[in-house]
Amino acid sequence: MKSHGLSELARRSIDPPISWLMKVALARPELISLAAGFTDDLSLPIDETRAILDEIFASPKQARAALQYGSTLGDGTLRRLTAEWLREQDGAPGNSAGAYDPDRLLITHGSQQLLYLLTECLCDPGDIVLVEDPTYFVFLSILQSHGLACRTIPLESDGLDLGRLESTLESLKRSGDLPRVKMLYTITYFQNPSGVTTSLQKKSGALFLLRQFERDARHPIYFVEDAAYRDLRFEGKDIASALSLAAHRNRVVYSGTFSKPFATGIRVGYGLIPRPLLPAITRIKGNHDFGTSNLLQQMLARALDSCRYRAHLPVLQQRYRKKAAVMAKALREQFPDEVTWQEPKGGLYIWARLPAGRSAGMKSDIFKRALDRDLLYVPGELCYAPDPTRRAPKTEMRLSFGSASEEKIRQGIERLGAVVRDRV
Ligand SMILES: Cc1ncc(COP(=O)(O)O)c(C=O)c1O
């Protein structure tokens, strides 16, 4: 029989590039991977996690509660503490409680699940999602498997090009496609992959524009703020989230995670959701798993409550500051001047651009020769959404300083530099 009876979604779902990149990295232990967004092994909070588990299991009553199912929305204490943490980060005044109401908080299995649930909650096949250009390529796989189209908005050094956002919305209005536009997806802190951080003015400008076009869309167009890397800042001051913009609060979906800043293996994320969306997204979460692992949630609640989370952040930030500096120094020494990149102030990535005409794509000589030398990076082309209105560049590489040791980072950039020097 030729058909396996697969659904349309299953047939549309291609192997996400992330799976291939992770598989290659795991299958070849000798390989230096500057590709997948793994975090730093040595700073994972082993002692903190052991102490928290000991605390939970010290009392049979607590242990039983932790080992039971919980609720679909998530653990009440974790939701309260997460909302308080966000409010504190945003430096929000006392009268802004509504924006950070724990009742609007949904705990998910990583923020990846939140992005998936949100897509299912808002979009039908044929709908359009506005995305930054480039963007997080795993999110693109979600959109692709759901049969959604993308329109891309270029990035400037402080976030979205608002002129292009406006002209894109105008053109969608003219073509009658605005009712198919459901959300604008942004990664506002140390963007994956470009490293760009969005200013508060840009968040406000984007929200203002989305609202201008809502009348023609005949429904809200949500501003999705993915803040996965917010807590990984090692230089400069934090910027408030779009939740702090009181006028637009019911159009903002804030997606956060404890994966990157605490432990990717614990994998707990969350969303602060506008009230009208909350019942629907909670029902969908109910169908997926009717609640994130209770034990993991209780562990994080204790990490937040005991300040272990807060104390862990500077340790982590210090470590990434050092690794980023090692990568930047190696790039200065090993790469030709024609390759451009920004010194990172947080996050996990450096986005390096080769001169026009030089491909670093999956099928390029550079990628193949780097792999022959046991060096893996993310070809930038994977981070560009399919968009019929522009041609995606192939000249970029996403280089992660997250998981490789300092020594491996040096060696990796040396190997890559030799390949790139050969080609430029
Ligand atoms: C931009 C962005 N959002 C969300 C995620 C999902 O992370 P998690 O599901 O571990 O919270 C990632 C992971 O790499 C990411 O880079």
Protein traits:
single chain, 424 residues, alpha/beta, eight-stranded mixed sheet, three-stranded antiparallel sheet, 13 strands, binds pyridoxal-5'-phosphate
Short structural description:
With 424 residues, the protein is α/β, with parallel strands linked by helices. It is 42% helix and 14% strand. The model has no long low-confidence stretch (mean pLDDT 94).
What does this entry look like structurally?
The mean pLDDT is 94. The protein is of the alpha/beta class. The protein starts with 7 loop residues before the first helix and ends with a helix. It is globular. The chain has an 8-stranded mixed β-sheet, sandwiched between helices. A 3-stranded antiparallel β-sheet has the order 10-13-12, with helices on one face. The protein has a two-stranded parallel ribbon with strand order 1-11. The chain is built from 15 helices and 13 strands. Bound molecules: pyridoxal-5'-phosphate. Pyridoxal-5'-phosphate binds at residues 37, 110-112, 136, 187, 192, 226, 228, 257, 259, 264, 267, 269.
